UniProtKB/TrEMBL annotation:
Name recorded for this polypeptide: CKLF3 protein
Domain MARVEL, first and last residues per copy: 25-144
Gene Ontology cellular component list: membrane
Chief localisation class: membrane
Lineage: superkingdom: Eukaryota
Membrane topology: Multi-pass membrane protein
Keywords of the record: Membrane, Transmembrane, Transmembrane helix
Species in which this protein is naturally found: Hemiprocne comata
Cited Pfam families: MARVEL
InterPro entries, sorted: Marvel, MARVEL-CKLF_proteins
Cellular compartment(s): Membrane
Spans through the membrane: 33-55, 61-79, 91-110, 122-140
Amino acid sequence: MEEPEAVGAAAPPPGLRSVLPSREFLRSRKGQLLLAESVLSFIIFICFIASLAASFMMAPLLEFLLALFLFFAYAFKLNEKFKGFYWPLTDFLRCVTAAIIYFAISIAAVSKYNDGASKAAGVFGFIATIVYAIDFYITFNDLVTFLKQGSSDSPEGHKSD
């Protein structure tokens, strides 16, 4: 007699695994950076909600949503499916603006407000600034490679030959 467990073990059951990103992406540098950005942005958002500096809560919310979108876009390889969209440039601009915004609101939260939640949001904001700066440095190198690759395939380069 054949065991029913052996038949079910051949194919993984559909369900939550089809929605979750692969382990190889989660172990990659880009996956870890995007996950760290999402988690830090969410923590900062929660801290700003609980603080007197609630007017700053929109920036971490938007950065959380953008980081989460790019996390799933890279995890499901949408960057390979949609070639006409400049993914490295979008990611670079997101990281640069996020680092600048987090740095500015962290200084304001730490210096202007005295409650603990504002101070915590400021400290996590400085950490997020560092994470976004690392990400935009790495993304800048990818962007340069992407642009060099695009310039060699352009029609203007072939006309001069």
